[in-house]
Amino acid sequence: MFNLSVFLQGFPLLFKAALATIGISLAGLFIGFFVAVAVCAARLSHDAFARALGGAYVFFFRGVPLLVQLLLVYYLLPFVGINVPPLVAAISTCALCSAAYVAEILRGGFLGIPHGQVEAARLLGLSRFNMLWRIQVPQAFRLTLPALGNEMVLLLKASSLVSVVGVAELTRTSQNIAASTYRPLEAYLAAALIYFVINGALSLAAHYAEHRLRVA
Fold first, then answer.
1. pLDDT, tens digit, for every residue of 135-157?
2. What is the C-alpha separation between 198 and 192, in angstroms, rounded?
3. Beta carbons within 8 Å of 50's beta carbon, 6+ residues apart
4. pTM of the model as a whole
5. How far is CA 56 from its chain centroid?
């Protein structure tokens, strides 16, 4: 039968693990965003080599599962003499993987801006930086905000895979609780509830930001 005491007793440990999960996801998304900007710029470049390089990056990190990427980073780097802690391997892999998806989201946003606006900005004498900062970036951000919110939720759920490299995040902690108490149902149900609350909060925040931008 369902044991409510085990369900409740596991929450303090799972709450701490949830903070680690959120931290890994946010760090991966933050670092990955800057990588994504560079990859997006390469994909939109007039230089054929830059476009090919950006396309190869996106093709690899979208084509290889995140679990395999984690194992490659964690085991391949020490093989070539670079030892990284599990947490660093987890964050860097999440960032590199997320960057491939965010780069395509941003590229779609920039391509969705009417070309006439860029031409009008050039006729008004705006510099490339002002045109990018005042016209293109705000519109691209508004166009891609729903997709960026979805990517944040997907990355948080995918961060459960970092448990394979020994990071004590939410999924790994629930596995430890299930192994020590022999009550897997209660442990995994509590973890699922925490995931549901976190992802629900992120989704509501993304919808609120989208609504505010639409009103503006």
1. 887 888 888 888 888 999 999 99
2. 10
3. 41, 42
4. 0.87
5. 19
How many angstroms separate the CA atoms of 129 and 118, rounded?
12
User: Looking at per-residue confidence, does 158 or 216 come out higher?
Assistant: 158
The pLDDT of residue 216: 56
CA–centroid distance for 85 within its chain: 20
- Per-residue DSSP letters for 6-18? HHHHTHHHHHHHH
Give whole-number Cα distances, 94 to 2, 37, 87, 201, in Å. 35, 16, 11, 21
**What's the CA gap between 173 and 192, in Å, rounded?**
12
204: CB partners within 8 A, 6+ apart: none
């929450």: which residue's tokens?
11
Q: Token match 């976190």: residue?
A: 198
| 188 contact partners, CB below 8 Å, separation of at least 6 | 174, 178
